[in-house]
Design goal:
4 copies of one chain form a homotetramer. With 411 residues, chain A is of the alpha+beta class. Chain A contains 11 helices and 10 strands. The first copy, chain A, is globular.
């Protein structure tokens, strides 16, 4: 198996190199956003190259990898900003695949999950809201779903909804009374769901952008409820650890590529009478990048094994993924920043790509749990061990109200 | 005098607040670059507000400040990305004003310097070249000027030439035999000077962009020589210290504004049951920003006094300005980065401006001497004191070939 | 005046170089602590060298400097760990001089302040207590003084009382009912005051060590009250800003000396075929040290001017001193740490002194307000400006209960 | 097997907790150095507890672990400063075991290696020399061995020779003509070997200290040559990777223990109206420690597997160990530094141990390759891939003179 994964990773890397990088360059030079026409073409090529669908079960045409395998393959795919999309493993679809696989009914699977896994559709998940709604604190959700005959009516405003434009459906998280929240599967063509503007974020590589989405008098039938009523935030945990870790994998790939680019770049250039590659401060940047990447990779792979053995929503998985997300987001940022510095003036020119990489990566320290929010929750888990006798229970047994102030982090 | 400067700074700050910020927001939201029509309007308003021309002598309609005064006023102007341009003290014009004032003839002053000081024109300086030409190491200049009857013919390619599009003239630094370099004042409409494309840099606020410029069979008469033949790199030192320090002043203003914006932003928002302003990690960011800004301000002002007392090209000025540039560029970056983090998701949306500030600022750690190149030269000056008996002489007496490996840093 | 200060600083530096450094080396090599016999000898030499008493008024035999002057002279004295003691301006005496000068009666001045200023005595101040008493939060003082006929009886335990062993008197801060605290001048030979063990702290250079001190049934007469009953924490503010800033000045001196030592050290050594001074990573350390020192110096001097103009207990002085303390403590630590790294293996050998410097300096980021406590209070002052209309009032008018949670930082 | 290792690690941790920590505390409080009487007692206890000899083959009474197993067990042993010695796996013995196992003859094994593995003796390795000899650059060795009848005569001065006092033998690295170096096994009672003073280093936990050692007219017979004449620096590579990694393992253990101590410490204390464990800046320290430890652990374990699969002297092992050493040394330092900060004033008191931990750890960023030297060699390996076609060959085939400037790092 491990050999297979190594081979898949190499094949993925070659696919990105040959078929995705030229498209990426074209998009960046043109200042264009990633979009669905590009996605469809790339995914077709990925299928032909045998690298489509790292998370898609083999019987649905994918690679069917566990998280340990994904760590190698998604890092390879991540060597391009649009690589994860090309192999059908980009956010928020990857997390939604995990979530639906764990929670949805057979009918919901056929309608929503399988087309998603096959790359026929894209999806969105709508949690974050403008202030004073849910930002980094998901318990502040204000979008509300009211019980009506045969279903629910959802009202509320969401923003930063990745991939909303062009998605087939959106998983909407809404308050459903008594402090509980519930997840609803809302078809994108539901007349009560309106996708507003793409927000002018620094990154341009998410198919479907990051959108404002409004639910206005949006009726959904009972079959649209995902899992149990009132269990929304609990389910959100199922996707959180793998989603965070997947971001780490793909950004790590980009960092590793940029690191190689910078090493090659400075090898051929001179200043002050010596090749730049002989300047000690340049070497310090190269070494620090190598170190950051090695540490990030080891951490991601070790946490991936925890997810595989302990379960996606286990407390060890959540703790590990929070740690990995924080470390890797900061490490990737440091690497890309040093790469820009190694390029000098060319590093702030978008035609050398590394400027674009840095700008694209800026959000990674914020979305899916900012470094500050995550560190708060990491510290609380550590400190709790010194005050309470028992560790947090796994999700199945998780009581609705966990410890003192539950930190259920998200964007 | 000091009272006057304080008053001028307050007036400048108010001018920026009332008349420049609305224009800045418009440009950013529209994704537009700063351009000359905007510049002309803003400078007219600056004149009316009595804040035009910090470096322009009073008799030419300006404020006639020394560097100590400039530190306060340019920080105020810098609270907008386009503020320095609005008051006619943006790069590269400010450095060129210093350079011309120190070196040019009366005729050159009337033709080039005075219109520049009055804001009637803009200027450029052409030093940096594509590899293997002069990048961070100015001694690698390959653009060459050949002696011909009545003048010189310049040939070579330059890039990252700030403000070239729309400038009235460019100071071209070219090799002139025997290892010497010479500065030439080239009218922008000289048929041998071609302004190429604007380079797609991350920043958008420099009037005239950062351009590729080619000199091809470019004839200039003897009167176009600035100062002495062969003294080009020596003169470059005259503008280096004040130019670096001016960047520090204006970026410090932007950092201070962003810091205030972030403090206001988090004061009104809550998460996890408390105002964000009560979260310890948010407070750490706010405090670190306050500290970085205070240290940067104290350093800039103390070095400004050194420039005023010891002279722009003194070794103490050069050393101090290199120190300030390095510290302030890194500090400003840290501040803007923390501000983005304090804004959370909104911090990577360009409609909240702070995302744009971060992206605009990225070049500051590279241009006018990258942090690595500057630290090399700072260290060498420190270490030289432990090997040679006498400190470096001031510019007037500077021998053509200074110590072991002269580090004459630039972009 | 400014010339005089420059001259005094040079003279102080020379005095340290010639007369204090040999004593310092002897103490360090022998693993001995600084003690009073050494202090008396050094202060006699300082008087002869004309550098005694930077804070001592001229009429009492000192230099009578303001904070701006002190910044230069105390930095010079601080080039030795025991230099501030040698010139009679070491903690806690310097802060106590400021406090007594501002608050004490004529009789108290004659009995306590003047001998202190003349170097005939040393003093202590007893605020911090073992948990759950006052640590970084002075409002948690548990030592209590009860009203009795003709005076007060103090009971409680203190620790980390710098200089207690051998001091002539201790300013004890005790709770005096109704939530107020009061300062008492307690003679060290008061039978109710017991100086316990010297605590085994990392630093060895404080005359009198850092001691445990117990007040048990300790009677003091009414004349022992310093200032008003109940105003203890308010008075503590008077000494806080100058005391913090004085630490910055003297540690800056040590950092500057270590920086010079390291530069000299690496200039004469080689590895990997080149002088270490030509290794880029060594140069990075040297440059970063030069930058940190320059920024720290500029900041300290600018805040010193604020203390001189706005008053020791003004809100601007307190804010500035908190900023300077935080920045300088961290910067000094970075400098000394890099110096150790530049020395390599020799850097962790105490016979090269720099190892000792690092260890001695570790406490500076903790005492007189840890970097964390100070950043909290800095942030609160910044953020308060965005919620309340008026800035904090100066000390004279300060209400007993300031804003939400007053941060009155100390060790 | 993996279960066994987990069980061994738990047993080791318990042994340390119960039998080693009390001894450690006694040594620290008394200011005593680790010494052989203590070592012998502890090793006897370790044998009884079944945790003796992680590297000692089972047939010699040890645990016979590979590097992957060692990573878990030595981290457990490292929770005490003297834990690695207690289980007979402290530097330099662990590295010497690897070296001798790979290179020595059957006779040398019986005489030197087996007693070492059984804990009957200690050993030393003498590479580093006072300037201008071998410091961080082993190619600068000046100690020379001259061919004489029946053997060699060694002359030269070494310093920082860990464990020299009380060792049974020293592996001396000396120049043997033609630029080659050779390793010699020198009995400690050889009259030509003199152990000088223990150097006054910051750490006190190495049995036998760090000593000055002189070889004067020191005759050794031919049988004392370790491996081939001229191959000394090549053999040094055999011990380098496992030795560096072993340091990482044990220091990681100490960092993890200190992290737990700090978390427990702040849980029970309050300031400013809240438990310190609720202060955001304290939480940031706790989280950063948790993250640093997790990343360090993942990296160490992944590199340990590389050593096991690729060989101790493979280029991947050397690269990986250099990366791990640099990252872990810096991470451990950050952790211990934050722990001190979390303890506040108590953190700089040696009776709370964490002050001592910080001081002890300072050398780790310097010995066995300073962070700067290692980063240079890491960068060169990365950059070489961009200039030369083939990667470095494994040790067996390594030519005497490798690439441009071979960086063969050591202390």
């Amino acid at each position: 198996m491990s050999t297979d994964v190594g081979e898949l990773a190499r094949r993925t890397r070659a696919f990105i190199q040959e078929q995705v990088l030229p498209v990426e360059r074209e998009l960046i030079v043109a200042g264009r956003h990633m979009d669905d026409d590009v996605r469809v073409d790339l995914q077709r090529a990925a299928r032909e190259a045998g690298v489509f669908g790292p998370l898609t079960p083999v019987e649905l045409g994918g690679l069917g990898l566990d998280n340990a395998g994904l760590a190698e393959v998604l890092e390879a795919a991540g060597t391009s900003l649009i690589g994860p999309t090309a192999v059908n493993c980009a956010a928020p679809d990857d997390g939604n695949m995990h979530l639906l696989a764990a929670v949805c009914t057979r009918e919901q699977a056929e309608r929503h999950l399988h087309p998603l896994l096959r790359g026929e559709t894209r999806s969105a998940i709508a949690l974050t809201e403008p202030a004073p709604g849910a930002g980094s604190d998901p318990s502040m959700v204000r979008t509300a779903a009211a019980r009506v005959s045969g279903g629910w009516v959802i009202d509320g405003a969401k923003h930063f909804i990745t991939g909303a434009e062009g998605a087939a459906f959106t998983i909407c998280i809404a308050r459903t009374g008594d402090g509980g929240t519930t997840m609803f599967l809302v078809d994108q063509d539901n007349p009560g769901l309106r996708v507003g503007r793409r927000m002018p974020t620094l990154d341009h590589s998410a198919a479907g952008g990051h959108c404002e989405v409004t639910f206005a008098d949006c009726f959904v039938p009972d079959e649209a409820v995902l899992g149990d009523v009132g269990a929304g935030l609990r389910y959100a945990q199922v996707r959180l650890a793998p989603s965070r870790l997947a971001f780490c994998m793909s950004w790590l790939g980009l960092a590793a590529r940029a690191h190689e680019m910078a090493a090659a770049h400075i090898t051929g250039r001179s200043s002050f009478g010596r090749p730049i590659s002989e300047h000690g401060m340049a070497q310090a940047h190269v070494a620090d990048n190598e170190i950051d990447i090695a540490a990030a990779r080891a951490l991601v792979r070790s946490v991936a094994r925890v997810l595989d053995t302990d379960g996606l929503a286990s407390s060890t998985a959540r703790h590990g993924a929070a740690i990995a997300k924080t470390f890797v987001a900061e490490a990737v940022w440091r690497v890309l920043d040093r790469v820009v510095q190694l390029y000098g003036g060319l590093g702030i020119c978008e035609d050398h790509l590394v400027a674009r990489f840095l700008v694209e990566a800026r959000g990674f320290r914020i979305y899916e749990g900012s470094s500050e929010v995550l560190r708060t929750s990491i510290a609380r888990r550590v400190l709790r061990a010194h005050t309470t006798p028992a560790p947090a229970a796994p999700i199945a047994a998780a009581p609705a109200s966990a410890a003192p102030t539950p930190v259920l982090e998200s964007r």
